[in-house]
Amino acid sequence: MTPEELRSFCLSFNAAVEEFPFRPEISVFKVRGKLFALTTLDARPLTVNLKSDPEDAVRLRSEYDGLIVPGYHMNKRHWNTVTVDGELPDHLVRELIEDSYDLVVAGLPRAERLRLDRA
């Protein structure tokens, strides 16, 4: 997955936006003001921080040792840093991004979730 594909996929979700609250090179993808992905698109190797169910986070780290690690500068229980350098299948990276988005949406107030469903 290229940086452009990663960016496009993150922005393909309902109400997803890209912001730069930290530095101009750090892309923060949000839904309704809540972070679901964070990356530096020009970094080599390309990595992305993604929210994960705590049990899944631990399983993924052991299954993909070195490619999925505890979230850098994030709550290690809920976030993983995923290396997107071609070693992980693109479909898995997409699935992890979608899971992160879904977890964040699930934590939104009901009214916000309903607005997302209608858009």
TrEMBL record:
It comes from the Bacteria. It holds the Pfam family YjbR. Keywords: DNA-binding. GO terms for molecular function: DNA binding. PANTHER family: CYTOPLASMIC PROTEIN, CYTOPLASMIC PROTEIN-RELATED. This is MmcQ/YjbR family DNA-binding protein. It comes from Streptomyces luteolifulvus.
